Amino acid sequence: MDHPLPHLEEGAAFYANKHSFLYDSFMDAPAGIAIVKGPTHIYEFANKTYNQIVKRAIVIGKTVKENLPELEQQGVIAMLNEVYATGSSFVSHEYAVELTKEETGTLELSYFNIVIQAMKNASGTIERLMIHAVDISAQVKARKVIEESEKRYTNLLSQSIMAIAILKGPDMQVAFVNDKMLTYWGKGNAVLGKTFGSLFPELED
After folding, report:
1. Minimal CA–CA distance to 83: which of 117, 115, 55?
2. 47, 29 Cβ separation under 8 angstroms
3. What DSSP assignment string belongs to 22-82?
4. What is the pLDDT of residue 12?
5. Which end of the chain is more exposed for a tag (fewer CB within 10 A), N or C?
């Protein structure tokens, strides 16, 4: 049975010898991999992980827009057009995109480390794009929860009627100080990142 994986190199011998190996390697890869053909970006290949991270089974032979219509308004189709037209790879870390969950029909924000690369034929003409995506949604969302919690905590300390400073490390570096403490110290905001000893050398004598 022929698989919808296009030539990665020209030459029937290479294709005959490597086709099955490449297909199996791509299909079982832990990252999402897809290959789309032509200026309308018709899917020729999408591996298991890709189907999982886009939250649906990609229909081979249909375009990105047909399979993932929610991406058009988010600029993704325009970005694919740009890579196809220029040949310049698109690389992004923590690329945010909203994808529709098939079960509920609701949009869910996801984050990816993504690379989209043009694939050329023997004459140097761009024919396809390869999409390589790693879903990092869980890590990014967990970090954002921590950052939001820290922000709320910092706001509480900033608004406190008490003079508060937070020093970190053995050299007591100033990590946080509220306005009350700055007034008490007689210092400005430039104290952040400095050691307590450098701010008050007289106390070390």
Report:
1. 117
2. yes
3. HHHHHHT-SSEEEEEETTTTEEEEE-HHHHHHTTS---TTSBHHHH-GGGGGGTHHHHHHH
4. 42
5. N
State both tokens at 12.
């029937």
Q: Is residue 71 within 8 Å of residue 79, measured between CB atoms?
A: no
Block residue for tokens 């700055």: 182
pLDDT of residue 20: 67
pTM (predicted TM-score): 0.67
Report residue 36 CA to chain centroid gap: 20
Regions of the chain where pLDDT drops below 70: 1-21, 153, 157, 204-205
CA distance 135 to 106: 19
Q: Cα–Cα distance between 6 and 23 in angstroms, integer?
A: 10
pLDDT of 64: 97
pLDDT digit string (tens) for 115-158? 999 999 889 999 999 999 999 999 988 887 877 777 776 777 67
Where helices occur in the chain by DSSP H, the ranges are 12-27, 48-53, 64-67, 76-86, 137-158, 179-185, 196-199
